[in-house]
Each structure stands twice: as structure tokens, then as C-alpha cells.
Amino acid sequence: MTGAGAGQGRAIALALAESGASLAVSDINIERAEAVAERIGVGGGRAVALHADVSNRFQTANMIERTRDAFGGIDILVNAAEVFHPEPLLRIDEWNWRRQLEVNITGAFFCLQLVARVMADEGGGRIINVLPAEALGSTIKSGIGYLTGKAGLFALTRQGARELASSGIRVNAIAFGLEAQDWNPLAENGGLAVKLYDGPGGIGGAAQFLCSEAGRSVSGQVLAVSGL
Fold first, then answer.
1. Of 40, 39, 36, 62, which is closest to residue 51 (Cα–Cα)?
2. Which end of the chain is more exposed for a tag (fewer CB within 10 A), N or C?
3. Domain locations in the chain?
4. Strand 182-183 vs strand 169-176: parallel, antiparallel, or unpaired?
5. Which helix (H) or strand (E) holds 210?
6. What is the pLDDT of residues 29-80, one digit of tens each?
7. Residue in 226, 227, 228, 207 with CA at minimum distance from that of residue 218
């Protein structure tokens, strides 16, 4: 899974490990990924830490191959990598605009396409995209580059589910309330200080459901998680 070193990605990684999944914990910051993998190992789980910038297709492909080498296959993909810059429309520069789109939508597409090819050959799988609830048609105070990319992730979820259904691949999304989070401009993950997995009602519990047998008939949907 991507973006697993902090925030929503870390919460989901810990929850899936708790459910018995073996994880490739990927993050652009390898130290964060290693810390999460170590925590999973201490708890009796199995995880490897990987470095990848998902906006780079070659790094993404290498991450996928290293995951296959470690575990023999891929059953689940969680797209949680993200970049968040809070600049408003009149102040955002080209670099921050492009960077957010490259990670938040293009990177997610690279992961989805490349992993789906593996899953199609292996008989199916489950893909989860993580996005803010505001990307479903609402707005935030500022952060137009972030929300634009995440709105595209909603379309990627719906269309991906339709096109991959015949390959036995389920594609869903989990939506969290962005404006319910605490803001910290110094946070390494782009400014979002989010709560960790807090039991069945949290974002980790939502991921557990979508990856479980109980969620086998759910695809193309967005599961909104409140109270984070």
C-alpha cells in the first residue's frame, strides 16, 4: 500500500496487519515506512518497508515487483499516497499545482493500472482509493490543487470498478472528512495531522470491511467514514 508511513495510510496499514494481511508498506519517506513495518512486526505481523514516489512510473513498477518477490502475489492495493498544499486559487504556483496532480491522481492511476494487470492474471483482487469526502462535490477553505486531484480519484474509482469487474477486481474508495482534521503546517505528510486506527468505526475498520469476504459484493462505491 502507498502512503503508508503517516496519516490515513498508516492507520489502514495497522488495521489490515491486525486482520492478518502481509504488507508492503510504501512511502516516499523510507524512515516512516520502516517505522510502520517495525511496529507491525513487533505485533506479530509481516511487513516490508519500501521507498517509492508513485508519480514516477518506474519507481511504482519497481515497488510492485518487490512486493511480488516478497509475498508471491498481490491481493490488495490501497492508494493512500497524497500531497496537500493549502494555497488558494489566486496564489498557488505551477510546481505545487502539478505536484499535487502528479501524486494524487496520476500516481494513483499508475498504481491502479499496474497492480490491476497483476491481479487480472492472478484471478482478482481488491483496490481501495483514499480521498476526502469534500472531493465528492463539496469544497474546502483553500487547497484547489489538492481537491481537484482528489475529485479525479473519485472518477478513477467508479470507472476502474466498471472496467475491472470482468477480471474479478473490486475497486472502492474510503472518504474521510478533511475539514474535521487538525491542521499542522509543519507536518511531514503535507499538513494533515490525523488520528490513527481507532477500532471498527475508524478508517482502518472501513478498509478491513472492504477487503474482507463480507465486502465481496461491494465495488464502485465510496464508503464515508465520519468521526475521525
1. 62
2. C
3. 7-225
4. unpaired
5. helix 203-211
6. 999 999 999 999 999 999 999 999 999 999 999 999 999 999 999 999 999 9
7. 207
Our CA angle for 164, 169, 174, nearest 5°, is 100
What span, in angstroms and rounded, lies between the C-alpha atoms of 4 and 207?
A: 13
Cell numbers that stand for 48 in this block: 516490508
Stretch 183-193: mean pLDDT: 38
CATH class of 7-225: alpha beta
Give me the active site residues, please. 146
Residue given cell 504488507 in the structure block: 23
Q: From the CB of residue 162, how many other CB atoms can be counted at a distance below 10 Å?
A: 12
| pTM of the full structure | 0.89
**Length of the chain, please?**
228
Contacts 24+ apart (CB under 8 A), 197-202: 197/11, 197/12, 197/14, 197/15, 197/18, 198/228, 201/225, 201/227, 202/11, 202/15, 202/227, 202/228
